[in-house]
Amino acid sequence: LSFAIIHSTTIALPAWCEACTTHGLNVRLLPRDVATRWNSTYDMMKVAREYTAVVDEITGNKSLNLRKFELSDKQWDIVDDLLHIFKSATLLFSRDNISTIAQVIPMMDVIDDFFTETPTRMLHPAVKSALTLAQATLNKYYSRTDDSNVYRIAMSTSSLSLTISVLTPPVLTMFNVVLHPNFKLEYFCKRGWDQVWINTAEEILREEFKPYVDMDAPAPEDPKVCAHGVDIGYCYNLFILC
């Protein structure tokens, strides 16, 4: 519809602008759905929903030859079911000053929680099918984080091979959360994840840090404070065990 209006500069475009004015809306065109642009479909449908009255009037006008773009009430319901969760996630990870590796798991958890809850909601069957495919894609990327150099650099390398399930994170990815001061192991405890996974992540992380324990370091003036001025009591609380 957006392309049809734009390319009909003498008929459809003036009719669209007039309809916007008639319904008390700012004159604007529908965003284009671009396959290579993130969230362009969501952006297009969001504006289309805001301009429902205009879209219905334009597509319902036989003289404009746009009836093939007319939406039924059920189709508008599908538009209502399109959610902003993916839009929010892509915007978050597009910000240079905010996104970090440790935010990957929490964001995936938010999306996975939504996938888990949607079957209980009144969604159109087409939307439910799309969400099933989306969850399969999410799980695929979940399992691939162990192959990413970014995660391996954050926690050296590991030959550990584990089976990935829907809600079970790769161990290497977990390290980034464990070492994050706002998350640590407490995050996984609150999420109710398998204690075996949590214990495994801690054990491997401790093993990786063992070589540094025996390294020579200047003796601190205060025996309760380490060479870097950090309270030793705090060091023991690295993981915030649950």
UniProtKB/TrEMBL annotation:
Taxonomy, superkingdom: Eukaryota
Annotated localization: Nucleus
Main location: nucleus
Alphabetical list of InterPro entries matching this protein: RNaseH-like_sf (IPR012337), ZnF_BED_domain_contain (IPR052035)
Record protein name field: HAT C-terminal dimerisation domain-containing protein
Any single Gene Ontology cellular-component annotation: nucleus
Gene Ontology molecular function terms on file: zinc ion binding
KW Chaperone (keyword) present: no
Residue spans crossing the bilayer: none
Keywords for the protein's UniProt record, in alphabetical order: Metal-binding, Nucleus, Signal, Zinc, Zinc-finger
Record flagged with keyword Iron: no
Signal peptide: 1-19
Species whose genome carries this gene: Gymnopus androsaceus JB14
